[in-house]
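Human:
Focus on the backbone:
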Amino acid sequence: VRPPKAEAPPPEPAEPTEYAKNRPKRENAGRNNVMANYVSNMSGSLDLCPCTDFVGIIGSNSSSAQPYHVEVSEEAMLLMDFHAHLSCYEVIGYLAGDWDAAARKLSIKRAFPCKGLTGTQQTDSCEMDPASELDAKQKMDELGLKVVGWYHSHPTFKPNPSEKDIENQENYQAFFHDEGNHEPFVGMIFSPYDVRLPTRESRREMFWVKKSAGVSTPMRMKHARKGVDGVVSEDTKGCMIDLIGKQDVFGRVDLTELWRPFTRLNGKVPEGGPVTKLAKMRGALGAYLPDTDESDEFLDEVFTSLQTQWKLDLGY
């Protein structure tokens, strides 16, 4: 259900960048119930395209092999997943890092959450606000990082790319094409609240588009994960607290609501007691962190901030 329109017209958005002007919008292609009872009633999906696996040695010259290695920081994934959990509408942002053409390695070091363009934020669509996009790129420049990817969420359905996601990714790859005929740019999709998840851990997909004979195919990008080194950095924690404090979070999730009436899925059989969206989020974020007291203290601090700034009683 879309929120009612405000009586007063919203402020005019910033002038779109050239890419933003030409970027296609993703559209809803219908619903598809996939499980019985609660799961069927609570979760549908768009017309999504499952990713295909590459075959062969990563970084080789084989046309069937993954074109380059990818390493992604778990702190970056922690931030992306946190961003995805905050809204029942799609969220969007950029990935930053560096590209080593000689080693054929793309390193994702940070995520930069961006604001959705006013009027485009829905449960199955979101376009990036040009002013937010510019701000993110300026911060990357200050840190000596480059844009190496983008991410968005599929709030309650699988993280397989839609046809429009594939088109967007293909445009990005062409836009960031380098002199060595490489396309060092990936897409990531996070699915935080799909009730079909086996556990509380979110499902995610990293993809790249392969073009052959006029056909664009989403390919699964295998990647190494660089773990959190002891404790979460102040930079990542600051970004998370900043996201909580933003007053323009559209479609805020009520973390006191029930996510699903069971804990896990054993195949298709529900097991365990009910799980709130708060418990779902904490379980998902905890999957990126070491099992230490410091990690628990970090999560307590984040959720205490959520409780205070969103004026919720979360028990902290």
The radius of gyration is 19 Å. The helical segments are 18-22, 37-42, 74-86, 130-143, 163-175, 234-245, 277-286, 293-309. Confidence is low (pLDDT under 50) at residues 1-14, 16-37, 39-45.
